[in-house]
Write a structure and sequence with these properties.
alpha+beta; Translation Initiation Factor IF3; four-stranded mixed beta sheet; 4 strands
Length: 77
């Protein structure tokens, strides 16, 4: 599986979701977007699950690496 990575820790909060959605849209089927974030992206997960048909919610993964570092993998069907 090919993976694109976005480190969002230095991106202003208002710019994060548009950046994520653009990167996810650019993926091909079977690829994944990996996010490095300063908080758990639960609201993003719920938004993707509700609004993006190509989001593979069953294979979504998130790991807490440190108190202020979360790594989430968003696979595309």
């Amino acid at each position: 599986m090919t993976t694109e990575t976005l480190d969002l820790r230095d991106v202003p909060p208002a710019q994060r979701h548009p950046k994520i959605f653009d990167a996810f849209d650019a993926l091909d089927s079977g690829e994944a977007l990996t996010l490095i974030n300063d908080h758990e992206p639960k609201p993003l997960f719920y938004q993707l699950r509700a609004e993006v048909e190509s989001f593979d919610a069953e294979n979504y993964e998130v790991d807490r690496v440190a108190d202020d570092e979360f790594v989430a993998t968003l696979p595309k069907k």
